[in-house]
From TrEMBL:
It is a single-pass type II membrane protein. It comes from Podarcis lilfordi (Lilford's wall lizard). Residues 18-48 have a biased composition (Low complexity). The keyword tRNA-binding does not apply. The lineage of its organism: Eukaryota, Metazoa, Chordata, Craniata, Vertebrata. Pfam families: Lectin_C. Keywords: Disulfide bond, Membrane, Secreted, Transmembrane, Transmembrane helix. Residues 18-60 are annotated as: Disordered. One of its GO terms (cellular component) is extracellular region. SUPFAM superfamilies: C-type lectin-like. This is C-type lectin domain-containing protein. The chain crosses the membrane at residues 79-104.
């Protein structure tokens, strides 16, 4: 029995130890579960924190805010995107330039064709024999005609200038005689002042080449009732014309010339006793009327025989 009691106590002891082991295992498993739960919860919190950090801030409300948001997102493009955009812009500009150049050349070609047709129609109408000629031959003919028109236009301009000059001279009472023009000026100057005036008018203080001219001058001077300077003066011991031929015929009044050194310049008297005898020498500083003489432009004026 004693042996049996001993076995009974031993079994109780073993049962107790097993219970202790089981309870310890349960505690350990619960501890493990709790630690795992803590770890998982911490991991969840950390991952949520990271997600919150990665999330972009919500866009601001309003049109301007949206535009600003768009600009901000696009303001830092990659190098490849920037290069692509620049290249596209360059190609676009080049394409626009080529198109504009093409349009310009097309318009230019159209205008040239229309101008050539106008020239061709005009030349054929003017000269029907050009009907079968090509454009190059017709254009050369038109160029020649244009050169002729330019030359004629220049001549017309020269004639117009000459006409205006003649009109101005006639208004100043220039008078024609034997293919020359004469101005009987009513103002008064010294001989040198009269000479200078005539030169400014591209003329000369008058000279007398023959009796016919002398009679004409005497008649006009007599009508004016005043003496007038002529271009004769004494220089270096002889009489000379201011501009004109050598002195051959002279038409001095009776007793003239006299006191040549003191009176080296000559006037045409308005009243003289004899025809073709009206010259008188006087001092050059005396103020008198004067007579200018001018030869018209030979291109526009011819003397009939």
């Amino acid at each position: 029995m004693v042996g049996g009691l001993t076995f009974t106590e031993a079994s109780k002891t073993s049962v107790a130890s097993r219970s202790n082991v089981a309870s310890r295992s349960n505690v350990a498993s619960r501890s493990n579960v709790a630690s795992r739960s803590n770890v998982s919860s911490r991991s969840s919190v950390a991952s949520r924190t990271r997600l919150k950090r990665r999330r972009k801030p919500p866009p601001k409300k309003g049109k301007y805010a949206a535009l600003l948001q768009y600009i901000t997102e696009c303001s830092v493009p990659s190098l490849a995107a920037t290069t692509a955009v620049v290249l596209c812009l360059v190609l676009f500009c080049a394409a626009v330039g080529v198109i504009n150049l093409y349009i310009y050349e097309q318009n230019k070609m159209h205008l040239e064709k229309r101008a050539m047709k106008t020239i061709r129609d005009f030349m054929i109408k003017r000269e029907p024999s050009l009907q079968n000629k090509n454009d190059s031959e017709i254009f050369r003919g038109a160029q020649k005609l244009a050169d002729e028109l330019v030359a004629w236009n220049f001549k017309v301009y020269e004639v117009q200038v000459a006409i205006e000059d003649l009109i101005r001279k006639f208004r100043l009472k220039w008078m024609p005689h034997a293919g020359l023009l004469y101005l009987f000026e009513v103002r008064r100057k010294s001989w040198f002042g009269a000479k200078e005036f005539c030169e400014e008018e591209k003329s000369w203080l008058t000279f007398v080449e023959d009796a016919g001219v002398e009679e004409f001058l005497e008649k006009e001077t007599e009508f004016a009732h005043e003496d007038s300077w002529i271009g004769l003066h004494h220089e270096n011991g002889k009489w000379k014309w201011h501009h004109g031929p050598n002195v051959v015929d002279t038409y001095w009044m009776h007793g003239q010339p006299d006191k040549i050194k003191e009176e080296p310049c000559v006037i045409l008297k308005s009243h003289c006793s004899r025809t073709t005898k009206c010259w008188e020498n006087i001092p050059c500083n005396v103020e008198k009327r004067w007579i200018c003489k001018k030869m018209p432009d030979k291109r526009w004026y011819t003397v009939k025989p």
